[in-house]
Amino acid sequence: MGSEASTEVEKLGHEAVSVKNQPWLIADSASAQVRALFAQLVRASPDNIALAPSTSYAISQAAHNIARSGRISAGLRFALPWAGDVILVLQNQMSSNVYAWQRLCRESGARLVAIPEPQEETEEEPVERRPKRQRTDSSMSAMTLSPWDEALETAIRLHAQRSRIAVVAVPHFLWTDGSGPINLHRLRSVLDEVAWGRRTVLVVDATQSLGVVPIQAESWGIDWLACSVHKWLFGPYGLSLVYVSPEWSQDAATEPIVQDEHNRLGADGDVCLPFDLERPGYSEDFQEGARKFDAGGRVNPILIPMVAGALKQVLEWHPDRIGATLAPLTAQCAEGAASLGFQVPSFHAPHFIGVGPSAEDIERELLRGEGEATSRNRSQAAERWADAAAAYLKRHSIHVSSRAGVLRVSPHLYNTSSDVQAFLDKLASFRCEPWNQHKCTSNYRTSCSANVTL
């Protein structure tokens, strides 16, 4: 799901729809404004910003150009199964940033390696000793390493001993449970330290955090970054904003995955390129910078004004302040859930977190399913628990998402501490339902009459 747009962004959408009936009023200048605003947000130049219909499209475009550049190959893998180039991803990261790498590995012979989710300590600790929310401001590059940072570095150094790490494709925070962050600035330093010849390509899906947690795309050495605007940029569905580093955007050998007129030099606005009978065909020179990676077709005149308005709002509020506003609610959720015996990641985003079943909840699900306690069965038991808990909460007008065996709880700017407490109360009462009666050890039988979306 996406974050709700403001009433002002909704108003801009209605106005843009009305302009469709007066198409002569449609202006293309709004797309330049969107590039400039997004560039300000990721600390980059507007010349390095492209527009894509989705993050999966943007990542596919990155994979296409990485393959075309000759930066990935099977090497000696056919003789030595462990050799050849490697692409690293995280277990359970969003599929938009995985499918393209699966295909690239299948076609190139490179290996796709998924780094397993770090296993945190499970023994009981007093709440006051549990890690609190992490720093999420612009000084993030100096913060304590998260379990994901440690797992990534371990995997990078291990695989770099025998293989070339061609691509690392990661999120800033894992979309299922908010675990992280991944220290992207430090990650680039580690990759450069172990690189064999060509520099490892760093690809980031920032959809789950950009707008709440600052990112400095250029100075952190990110090659490709994509962010769907419907999450924490508070925009509509249907657009992903893409940062492409100068190394890629200014390379004459790179190209879009769709052949179209609108990203060609001279085809601005309603200008139509002349047909050259001697060629025959149209000019194939691209626009300068990352604009050549824009998706085909005219920029959507309904979405773009909405996105511009949403980006202005994010910049006015500033990600640091948004994160600081949401962090206490997320911390309340984490500490409350942990005190009830549920599992939460110790390092997590300031704006969302995964609440998972306790070991006892898993055992109960295994008994109900009459399955052996294998790793796969335990994962499936956690998924059943999360599905049942989310459905129960929804019946009580509390809306959270079931994701990979956890409840993803994502407070918004309109949520309050009482909303979080209502969630915790109902989650506790979920254990007191008839099928969980033997587990009911609390008096959490409260009611919640209002809709609460977290």
From TrEMBL:
Domain Aminotransferase class V: 199-251
Residue numbers spanned by region Disordered: 115-141
Annotated Gene3D superfamilies: Aspartate Aminotransferase, domain 1 (3.90.1150.10), Type I PLP-dependent aspartate aminotransferase-like (Major domain) (3.40.640.10)
Database matches in InterPro entries: Aminotrans_V_dom, PyrdxlP-dep_Trfase, PyrdxlP-dep_Trfase_major, PyrdxlP-dep_Trfase_small
Stored Pfam families: Aminotran_5
PANTHER family: BLR3095 PROTEIN, CYSTEINE DESULFURASE
Protein known as: YcbU protein
Organism: Symbiodinium necroappetens
